[in-house]
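JOB MANIFEST
job_type = single_chain_structure
chain_count = 1
residues = 196
[input]
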Amino acid sequence: MASSRTGDWARARELLSASSEKLKSAVETALKQEAHALRNEVVSGLTAQAPGGVPIRPPAPLTLAARQLKGFGGTKSLIVRGDLRNSISVITDGDEVFVGVLRSAKSSTGESLVDVAQLQEFGGPPVIIPITPKMRRFLFVLLKRAGVTPTGGSGRGVIVTQVPARPFLRPAFEKFRAGAGRRFLERVAAGLGLTP
């Protein structure tokens, strides 16, 4: 049986002949660089409203009206104060890296951001909310502000709402995966001073 070698074997020998400490340092640095580049992809995707090139569903007119009543003028999905976007973190531990929202992350109002991230990433189940007279008045103010004409209700005194999925991590991760092996090896080679 015959075998043949393909690829740049001279470069492979150079990479493998580096001291183990130098190689370990180059690998750790390359891993951190890749992790921070992925975080930047997620953050810039949220800012541009298209993580991984996939547009995020815009907020509903009632959501925008509710934001205005609370004093927020922004129209972007998932960005009111920037808490969720700013909570995207990079944690490295040896040869493992975490990029995402930490379980301990809290919004400026004390809300768990990992719960918010999960709800936005995957959507939520329908929620049935009993309407009080005060809520009904607020709802009609929202409808008027949003320019929506109220249609007849069921008369049961409830409203059903559901948070749609607005993935912002998975599309960015999927886009970033393309070419990751090549980028990583190039970063290791650069760390060893072997760039062409």
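[summary]
The longest strand covers residues 88-93.
The chain has a mean pLDDT of 88.
exit_status = 0
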